[in-house]
Design brief:
By secondary structure, the protein is of the alpha/beta class. The protein has two domains: about 290 residues, no CATH class; about 180 residues, fumarase (Alpha-Beta Barrel). It starts with a strand and ends in an 8-residue tail after the last helix. The mean pLDDT is about 95.
Amino acid sequence: MATTTIRQADFIQSVADALQYISYYHPKDFIDAVHEAYQREENPAARDAMAQILVNSRMCAQGHRPICQDTGIVTVFLKIGMDVRWDAEMGVEEMVNEGVRRAYNDPDNKLRASILRDPAGKRENTRDNTPAVIYMDLVPGDRVEVELAAKGGGSEAKSKFAMLNPSDSIVDWVLEQVPKMGAGWCPPGILGIGIGGTADKAMRLAKEACMESIDIHELKARGAENTVEALRLELFEKVNQLGIGAQGLGGLTTVLDVKIRDHPTHAANKPVAIIPNCAATRHVHFELDGDGPAELPVPALEDWPEVTWGAGGDVRRVNLDEITAEDVRQWRPGETLLVSGTVLTGRDAAHKRIQEMLARGEELPVDFRGRFIYYVGPVDPVGNEVVGPAGPTTSTRMDKFTDMMLAETGLTGMIGKAERGPEAVEAIRRHAAVYLIAVGGAAYLVSRAIRKARVVAFEDLGMEAIHEFEVEDMPVTVAVSSDGESVHRSGPRQWQERIGRIPVAVE
């Protein structure tokens, strides 16, 4: 067999192009699946969230800007043919990382650098999103196959693993774990499940499964032909019966598909891993045959459904610069607000620094009294943008700081995504504060509501610095009201009960 030569420049360019490509193009199978779920959804709040996801997706495809502000940690699976020859001075990992570096620093669509070195210590941002997580397999052939993904930290944080006993039920374990995952992984999305091998193999299988195309409806139509397919169908039905719904608001669709890969395992073991893929599902597959960089197909705009989003006439409009405690007490869980005025931003690193400053008796660089904080790490702006895509990050990471922020800084409320834990909900109730959510997976749409932005503190933290945003008609939902009622508790419970009463359709 003839030897194929892969040139260094072609490989690097292909990686860079692919990362730019997936930052603003959803896979078509994902768009179709969300649209189908949107059309059949009966919960108005969940339907509204999916409308925002679809509108955001179309906007990103047109504007070539990131679907989500969390542009991910890069994961690459390489299958390198044994008859491939490299015309390169760099090693394969070096070439991948150079492609990542170029993609994330592309001035036309700069992506957010989220990768930190020294993770157990200083946690310093590498500033270019390197290094990637890379897996390489040597296989027969004369091609290089590349599967590449940019995995958001919010969904990755919800990964689960267990070494089950051989007699344990995989279905029971999955149904126990999914509610614990909450909404921080931004459903509706895909569950990747790995079964067998060893602990590390099961996790890799789950990650690879996440990158498969959505085909659950085709599987339902033809029926299962093996154990794995039967397990997929059972889990798809039973996970959706949990009623968690889009963004955890309650509804008919929590997962768009359940993908499973398995591997032989030791007789004493049953390793099982879950890795969810979120509403910003980003992955692509291509191969190199020595004939230049990979050519990725440009989707047609017609691939996106004609879905529009707009607030109804009865939506409450709120000026955050003028609200009173009495105003906040009137907001109810599940209610949609359009907020205007100024908000401060802050994430993990900023909250930790604020806590340390207060403990030392130091004055804070910003005044939080009577204000709202938005949990976000935005993408840098390009062109005439005020700010890049700026969707919410998972709020539960700030739970341990919530009482401190409400008690010691005078903060009135918070905006983020997903549920809050019992500790944070109790602090919100005790201080008569409020927690609002924006839609995870609609970052570009959300950023259009931001009219002005400036860094006001902790500039050295990069994307985790404290910004002041001036927003106009930013869409949010009341998630925890001032009396401690949480839509992430009531919504899924109500919809789980309702789904149980819906007659099962005959295929």
